[in-house]
Write a structure and sequence with these properties.
2 copies of one chain form a homodimer.
Chain A: H1 9-18, H2 23-30, E1 35-39, E2 44-46, E3 54-60, E4 63-68, E5 74-80, E6 85-86, H3 89-92, E7 99-102, E8 106-112, H4 113-122, H5 124-150, H6 153-170, E9 178-180, H7 185-192, H8 196-208, E10 212-215, E11 218-221, H9 224-231
Antiparallel strand pairs in A: 1-8, 2-7, 3-6, 3-8, 4-5, 4-7, 9-11, 10-11
Chain B binds a DNA duplex (30 and 30 nucleotides) through helix 8.
DNA sequence: CGAACTTTTGACAAGCATCAACACGTGTGG
DNA sequence: CCACACGTGTTGATGCTTGTCAAAAGTTCG
C-alpha cells in the first residue's frame, strides 16, 4: 500500500466542488492510504454480488455502471469520471448491486474502507463533504429516471450530452463546449433506454441541425442553448454550486 | 420543538435494518430533537428549489418524490414509507432537486440538520448506519432506472408491486403477501414510465392470471413466485440484510 | 342522490424496436 | 501492400408496442 501523495487530488477537487474544507482536512484527504490501479478499457472494476473492503476513486478515464436485466440486456445506470467515488456500496453494505466497467483505460485509486471511516470520524468536515457528494449522486440517479421515463429519444440523447459536458467541465477536464463521449451508440442506447438505431437518428438530426459536431469520440457543442432546450436540461440537479 | 421520546422509533428500526447499533446509539437516535408534523394527502413535504434547515423522517403513511419534466408531465422517482429519511439534500446541499408529496395522510418528524450532524459526529456507528441507508437508497434509484429502461409494461408494474411489498414487509408494516398500494393507476404510470391505460391492462392481466387480487388500495399477492418471475425481481438491490 | 374521481374497454395512430444491408475506418495477417 | 475481418455508424423497410383519445362503468364521498 504505497502512498503517492499527489495522486488523490481529483478526489479532493470533487469534494471541494460542494464543500469548503480547511487545510488539515485537505491534507488528510490527500494522505489517505491507497493503491493506484491501471484498468484497461472493458475491464471490470466492480462486479455485482461481490464484496470489497475498499472503495475506489476514479483518477482518470471513464467508466459505466450497469445492471443486467433478465433477458432484456443491459441498462447503464450511471457514468463515472475523474474524481468520482465509486462503490462504497459493496464495502459498507454486503454486496455490490451493479457492475462498474471501464469505458476507457482508467487510473483508479483503491482506498481501504477502514481509512475512509477513520477519516470521517476524525474530520467531520470531510464526512460532510462525502455526504454532500453522495446526495448529489443520488440526485443524478433521479434525473436519469426522469430522463428515461419521460423524454423522447432526441431529448434523452441531448440530455446525456449536456450532462457529460457539464460534469466534465466541473471536473476541469474540458472546456464547456467540448465533451468527451467515450461511449458508442449502443452504450448510449443502453444508458437512455433506446435501441441503438434511434440513438444514431437522434445524433444525426442534432448534427444536421447544427447543434453538435462529432469528431470520433469527441463532441463539439456548437449551439449549447439549443441542446439545453432540446434536452430540457436544468443543471441544478448536478448540485455543482457550493 | 417538543421532544416526544418514542415517536422516532421508525427511524431507529430503519437504521437497524442494515446496521448494528449499541444501546447508547439507540438512545441517541430516539433522543433527537424533533417536531411531529401531520401532513394531509396531497400536501407537499418538500418543494423543488427550496432549502430547508431540517431533515424529515416518515413516521407513518406514504409519500412520493417526483420531478416535473418540461411539458411532458410528471415522473415519480421514488416512494417513501415509514422510517424513510427524506431529503437531507435540501439541507446539506443548497436546494431540493425534486418534490416530495404525501400520497396518504402522514406523520413526519422534522429534525434539525444540526442535530443530525452532531449525532453523527458523536456516534460514528449512527453515522455509518445513515451512510448505509443512503447507499441502499441509491441502489433503489438504480433499480428504477433499469426497471423503466429495460422492462416491458407488465414487468415494470410487477416489479414495483414486488418492491412495495418487500419494503413494507421489511418495515414490519404488512405480511409479505399483503401490500398497501396507495397510488392510483396514473401515479403508477408516472412511476414506471407508462401511460395509465397500460398500467390498467397490466394490472388486469396479472389479476386474470391469478397472480394478484385487488381490494381498493390493498393488493393481495396470490402467487409471489409468479410475480417475482414476471417482474424479474431480485430483492438484493434493497439491501435488506445486515 | 349526484358529483368527482378512478377504472375499464375499445379504436386508432404514432413511435420505437427489430431486421437487414451497406458504408466506413482500422488493424491484422497474408 | 493489399485483402480481409471486425467494429461501428448509417439508412431503409416493416410491424409490434405503446401512447393518445374517447366513452362508459364503477367507486367514493359529500
Amino acid at each position: 500500500m504505497e502512498s503517492q501523495i499527489s495522486s488523490l487530488w481529483p478526489l479532493l477537487a470533487k469534494l471541494e466542488l460542494r464543500s469548503r474544507l480547511g487545510g488539515p482536512d485537505r491534507a488528510a484527504v490527500l494522505a489517505l492510504p491507497h493503491m493506484v490501479l491501471a484498468i484497461g478499457a472493458g475491464e471490470y472494476i466492480v462486479r455485482e454480488g461481490e464484496q470489497s473492503p475498499s472503495c475506489y476513486v476514479m483518477l482518470s478515464g471513464f467508466a459505466q455502471r450497469h445492471k443486467l436485466v433478465g433477458d432484456r440486456g443491459r441498462q447503464i445506470v450511471g457514468v463515472h469520471l475523474e474524481g468520482d467515488i465509486i462503490d462504497c456500496t459493496s464495502s459498507v453494505l454486503e454486496a455490490a448491486d451493479s457492475n462498474v466497467q471501464a469505458l476507457t483505460s482508467c487510473r483508479v485509486a483503491e482506498i481501504p474502507l477502514e481509512a475512509l471511516i477513520n477519516l470521517s470520524v476524525d474530520r467531520p468536515a470531510v464526512a460532510r463533504a462525502m455526504w454532500a457528494d453522495a446526495l448529489a449522486e443520488m440526485s443524478v440517479f433521479r434525473e436519469w429516471i426522469a430522463n428515461i421515463g419521460r423524454r423522447d429519444p432526441r431529448g434523452r440523447v441531448a440530455h446525456i450530452l449536456c450532462e457529460m459536458s457539464a460534469r466534465q467541465h466541473a471536473a476541469n477536464v474540458r472546456q464547456p463546449q467540448f465533451c468527451r463521449m467515450p461511449m458508442n451508440q449502443e452504450d448510449i442506447g443502453d444508458a437512455v433506454g433506446l435501441a441503438p438505431v434511434h440513438v444514431n437518428r437522434a445524433l444525426k438530426s442534432l448534427e444536421l441541425e447544427g447543434v453538435i459536431s462529432r469528431e470520433g469520440q469527441d463532441i463539439v457543442i456548437d449551439d449549447w442553448e439549443a441542446l439545453v432546450r432540446i434536452g430540457d436540461f436544468n443543471p441544478d440537479y448536478l448540485h455543482l454550486a457550493a
